[in-house]
Design goal:
The structure holds two protein chains of two kinds. Chain A has ten helices and eleven strands. Chain A is an alpha/beta fold. Chain B has a six-stranded mixed sheet, covered by helices on one side. Chain B has one domain: Nucleotidyltransferase, domain 5 (2-Layer Sandwich). The chains are: A alpha/beta, B alpha/beta.
């Protein structure tokens, strides 16, 4: 089983739109994992039908037992996050504000405060229209993505893939180079970076590259919206050559991608399936399969 | 020589865990005594952040001469491991523990 992780460094480069297209091209031979949980938008394009749903707990939050509370106000005094609310007698924790630091639990003289696992959101195993399974998650308000959640989504996707004897796990990763991205790189076989020809596109590509080098993973790059700035496009290509990264292809700025998105579709689907951009995406997918040693069907 | 493997299970036949920080187990092989022991590292799956440096600390406590893993470790764990005198070998992510040991002995693993 091979695992491809699609990353972007910079947000808004078209990573998710492209990953959704690759997911449809991979068909039922793949399991898709959406690890971009902060902005999990791939479901908008792939319309997963949920088959299994489970709650996800992450971090802790304080809970006050109002029967035991003596209204001494100590918890409110020490809280740095204004998470303790009171009308003078009844004390409650505002779970959106609570950062789970446990300070209030420590200072409570009557042990009325306990730390409980905090419900962060749900994760799902679903089926998409290519016939493939998709593992994805949705966070609640104030909850954040973490290495833990990414590892969980990836592990579930790998479990599904090995149970159903699938050859490929395709992961939509998070932007940036933080803990969730580190967690998504871990155990991968190939990294696809989607960038755009802008100063921040190049800057974030370089930062991501530094991280990938630490993981000694082979990687390739797609320059999306390449025709919008040929100067930066050339500079990115020069950088890829210098770093010996695979140049997987360039895509033009194409309003059809947006039109397809508005309809909840990928550009590979009707009425755009014969467009030049759709053709280029198919070529790029072949390149990726070749790099991974998978046979292109 | 003491060798640590990042592992999915606790026997020679089990698969390597390609991950460093969130590896399920750390398998320790002492070449002198031929003893294979296991350190359970599954608690890291409950850590939101910072699994890498935590696992690095565990590895340092074992005081191994060599660590064999898949593709990690990442930036923070690497910096922590620099404090220890150990050699890191990578590229064994798709092997079993036994295969990884044989590949290491045959000089087939890349030094990180």
């Amino acid at each position: 089983m091979k695992e491809i992780v699609v990353l972007s460094g910079k947000g808004g480069t078209g990573k998710t739109s492209l990953t959704a297209s690759f997911a449809l091209l991979a068909g039922s031979s793949a399991v898709v994992a959406d690890c971009d949980v902060d902005a999990s938008d791939m479901h908008l394009l792939l319309a997963p039908v949920v088959e299994m749903e489970e709650m996800f707990y992450s971090g802790k939050e304080a809970v006050i037992d109002s029967d035991a509370c003596i209204s001494c106000n100590r918890c409110l005094e020490v809280c740095h996050f204004d998470a303790v609310e009171t009308d003078g007698t009844l004390y409650e924790i505002n779970s959106v504000n609570c950062e789970g630091c446990s300070y209030c639990e420590r200072v409570c003289p009557v042990d009325a405060i306990t730390m409980k696992p905090s419900l962060a959101g749900d994760w799902y195993v679903s089926k998409i229209r290519s016939g493939a399974k998709m593992v994805h998650a949705q966070l609640g308000i104030g909850a954040e993505n973490s290495g833990k959640l990414v590892a969980r989504v990836k592990n579930e996707a790998k479990d599904v893939a090995s149970k159903d004897s699938k050859a490929l796990v395709l992961v939509d990763g998070s932007p940036g180079i933080g803990c969730p991205v580190v967690s998504s790189l871990s155990g991968a076989n190939y990294i696809v970076i989607v960038t755009e020809p802008t100063i921040s596109g190049l800057h974030d590509l370089k930062r991501l590259r530094e991280l990938i080098v630490k993981f000694r993973l082979p990687s390739g790059c797609i320059i999306n919206k390449a025709d919008l700035n040929s100067g930066y496009k050339d500079e990115i290509q020069k950088y890829l050559k210098k770093e010996k990264m695979d140049m997987l292809g360039t895509l033009p700025y194409d309003e059809n991608i947006t039109s397809a998105m508005v309809q909840g579709k990928s550009i590979l689907e009707e009425p755009y399936s014969n467009s030049e951009t759709a053709g280029t995406i198919r070529e790029i997918w072949k390149n990726i399969q070749f790099k991974l040693g998978l046979d292109g069907e | 020589m003491k060798i640590v493997f990042t592992a999915k299970g606790n026997t020679w036949e089990d698969a390597m865990d390609p991950r460093f920080g969130r590896a399920d187990y750390l398998l320790v092989f002492d070449e002198e005594s031929k003893e294979l022991s296991v350190v359970d590292n599954r608690e890291q799956s409950q850590q939101e952040h910072g699994a890498g440096p935590r696992t690095a600390q565990k590895v340092i406590d074992i005081k191994p001469d060599v660590v064999i893993t898949g593709n990690g470790p990442g930036g923070n764990a690497s910096r922590a491991l620099e404090a220890a005198t150990l050699e890191m070998y990578v590229g064994a992510g798709d092997m079993s523990i036994k295969e990884a040991y044989e590949a290491f002995k045959a000089g087939k693993l890349a030094k990180a």
